Amino acid sequence: MANDYISFVFKSLLLLIHLVFLGQHHVDSASVVKSLPGFEGPLPFELETGYIGVGEEEEVQLFYYFIKSERNPKEDPLLLWLTGGPGCSAISGLLYENGPLTMKLDVYNGTLPSLVSTTYSWTKNSSMIFLDQPVGTGFSYSRTELFNKPSDTGEAKRIHEFLQKWLGKHQEFSSNPFYVGGDSYSGITVPATVQEISKGNYQCCKPPINLQGYMLGNPITDSKIDGNSQIPYAHGMALISDELYESLKRICKGEYEHVDPYNTECLKLLEEFNECTSKLYRSHILYPLCEMTNPDCYIYRYSLSHYWVNDETVRKALQINKESIREWKRCDWSKPYTKDIISSVPYHMNNSINGYRSLIFSGDHDFEVPLIGTQVWIKSLNYAIVDKWRPWMINNQVAGYTRTYANKMTFATVKGGGHTAEYKPDETFIMFQRWINGQALYGKVKLLQKTE
């Protein structure tokens, strides 16, 4: 009997030790990364990678990259950057849009692709968290089978929980001004996340997150508004004829997204429209449409990141949890996801009422989410214009156009820009720098430097 009792106690202790170990493993999984394969020498910035568990049992493990501000991390803003998709990895933002590293554009020869420093990183004046979300994106994963698939509203809650836990482990940043940013499909999740954080600050969560505002680039906002803007945009950019445009307006009555199936004349005109535009690279209409494996194509850089991230030495350096090891994809469109926010306009309205400042910017050569639609929903908020439409300048050259509204919202175009910040990274960096510092976009700035 005594032996049975001793055996029971011993097994219980082993189980307790095992549970404590598991708890520690999932509570503290952050790692400082000093160097990365493909980059010469130590990293010239402070990088941390890790997992934060969310959900009742912390079954969802969200992977993040955190880079401290290169200026004054104790006081500079903290920015959470969400890549669109849904299902596009945070690496897209980090290596192509606004991070301190990018791929060296050499033709792949079977060896590990190289990384080089950028001169346009937003981390020059803010700390940044690049987050792999929703679950299944990048290196984020679930330790158990999920009964509820990710959704727009569900992600807003998960991201809020992630932030609370992340700041709990990084309390030195809890008083820094906090912003949420992203582009493309993040136009749905970012406004909802801002509202969720704002509600949490008032209702449930202490200490409050020092939320100040948000920014979005070429944001998907309302499928009807965004979709209906593509035809007038195509006409304005001389992609379709005046005759076709006038016929579309008259026969389809401005409704191009949800066409009456009995309106055969409209459907026929839309077929003609698609014939004119189907061979365009929609993310930037001036770029050629070609295969990702073509070294002469813009999107070849995405192939390089695929080779780099899927290298075993890179995953080891990033401290990737073995449970999440699988083939990394820049964007995985196959994951189940519920799009339960039809329009994020009401979220913008609520965030405006609550006083949060915002920056909405549009690359003016994006055919995916044309700037025309973005201007339509901004106008629907019905706020007075504070600063009239005017050019914003870099080195005495027009970099785009901008105006501001009474709800602390700034709208800006990026001249020659595309669907994401990556097409004009120098210009978007200057734009972000001015806005985050509370300056007017049309102010003065230092000379631009070129990417190394």
Q: Could you describe the 3D structure shown?
A:
The structure is a single chain. This protein has 452 residues and is an alpha/beta fold. The chain folds into two domains: 31-224 and 336-436, Rossmann fold (3-Layer(aba) Sandwich); 225-277, no CATH class. Helix content is 34%, strand content 18%. It has helices spanning 2-27, 91-97, 152-169, 186-203, 223-228, 230-236, 242-252, 264-277, 300-309, 312-317, 345-353, 371-380, 425-436; strands at residues 31-33, 47-54, 60-67, 78-82, 101-103, 115-117, 127-131, 141-142, 178-183, 211-217, 357-363, 385-394, 397-405, 409-414. The strands form two sheets. Strands 1, 2, 3, 4, 7, 8, 9, 10, 11, 12, 13 and 14 form a twelve-stranded mixed sheet that branches. The protein has a two-stranded antiparallel ribbon with strand order 5-6. A hairpin with a 3-residue loop joins strand 13 (397-405) and strand 14. The protein starts with a helix and ends in a 16-residue tail after the last helix. Mean pLDDT is 90; it is low at 8-28 and 445-452. The active site is at residues 184, 366, 419.
